[in-house]
């Protein structure tokens, strides 16, 4: 874009400016600065750099808030560099900054695969995924059933036997789950500020794989719980809106009645709906 | 939940930007603060502790909502999903004002989460006028728009920022949130007279003032919101009070947030100046 900014080229100019910020190659910076007035004290490029620093600083601070354990594990400098790379690969599509950062775990997984020097951080992607689930659970919508289409658990006994296969249980909205080959729940616990006073325990990456349930309680307390393979499979089916008949086809070592009982006793299920035949 | 129990209240005096590190002290001591400003983008989630805390604050104080996500100056279409959530938040909390900035934040649906500058031309001015009208129609309420701090200017610019803002405020029924620190920072960075800027802003349009601290960097001032309000900004604030009256004023402090008493002390300085204005003893 060579002409001055006007409404017809506003989009192209803003695209150039964006690229000059996030992909600071020489040619991108030149295009971003073509209409920028410099002074003796600061060149157009230096002025653009002020915005770049401000944006990166703001987003890094926000992501440190969502990923405090990852930041603690790698240190502020490394985390800041990581965020710069993440921003280039996963631009924010969220107008509110709290909605940005979902794919940091995926970015880290790619980064570690492609950087042999980062192999020691092999547990970091799953730690990031855990922190994102924690963030999502913390901000999840309140548990409320949609009137008319959903029923309370107390009404479960009223469902006729021949209709029980059509039951679709509704999970409490903050419930999140993940699997990891590493004990990321323990890694999280010994590194998170809320557990700082606890006695540090030795963690071995060979401690084994974990299934984790992340949720927010009725008093806004947060929990990360290690759960069995069966409970994970059961909850995963519920999370994917499987009917009770479909769930009954799955193979469990534990009885479905026990799994359902656990979910009800722990308020993981808030209601149900009856699917059409 | 207390949804629907609030009604918008008028505000006066010097309020504070609500920051999470102060929640506990506010809930425990119910400090004598006339109003709080909430960063709307921090309360956009569907549920959870932040919005629950916001409702608790709202039970005791009037609030305003201030955001950066409208991207009023962008070439993108307005993000109606964002506006819908903002409307829902405003309906829930009943703020006295909802405000955002004269800036662009996004392009091609990609957000920078920072306020980026615009060339000040009649065409861009018209672009903002149309979008502000659309936002106000969508939200069903007037909004306040804030002058940004800036670190660069454009060859395309053919009017001063104050002229640009004045034209927008006269062509729409939006009102103004005048950030005195931003005026001073931009004036120093670009070499204009901040007092002449104030003199060109319509008196009846200014409904809120922001104050904050800047940082001196090599070759420019940086609007960090991480310090006490600096003396030249207090001087400019006094001039603003003389021109616009005792407009509700907010202390913003976003980085290296101090303890609550330090923040409150800044607000009390602003209230001292409002009292001096009323007494006819306000100096420069």
Notes on the structure:
The complex is a heterodimer of chains A (277) and B (284). Chain A has 277 residues and is α+β, with helices and mostly antiparallel strands. Chain A has a domain at 140-277: Outer Surface Protein A, domain 3, CATH 3.90.930. Chain A is 45% helix and 12% strand. Chain A contains eleven helices and seven strands. Chain A has a three-stranded antiparallel beta sheet with strand order 2-7-3. In chain A, helix 3 crosses helix 5, helix 4 (68-74) packs across helix 5 (76-89) and helix 4 runs antiparallel to helix 7 (124-138). The longest helix of chain A is centred in the first third of the chain and has 23 residues, at 44-66. Chain A is elongated and about 80 Å long. Chain A starts with 9 loop residues before the first helix and ends with a strand. The model of chain A has no long low-confidence stretch (mean pLDDT 90). With 284 residues, chain B is an alpha/beta fold. Chain B has a single domain (14-279), classed as TIM Barrel (Alpha-Beta Barrel), CATH 3.20.20.150. Chain B is built from nine helices and 13 strands. Chain B has helices spanning 23-29, 49-60, 80-93, 122-139, 161-171, 180-190, 194-199, 231-244, 260-279, and strands at 14-17, 36-39, 63-66, 98-101, 104-107, 110-116, 144-146, 153-154, 175-179, 206-211, 215-217, 220-222, 249-251. In chain B, the strands form three sheets. Chain B has an eight-stranded parallel β-barrel with strand order 1-2-3-4-7-9-10-13, surrounded by four helices. In chain B, strands 5-6 form a two-stranded antiparallel sheet. In chain B, helix 4 (122-139) crosses helix 5 (161-171). The longest helix of chain B is centred in the last third of the chain and has 20 residues, at 260-279. The mean pLDDT of chain B is 94.
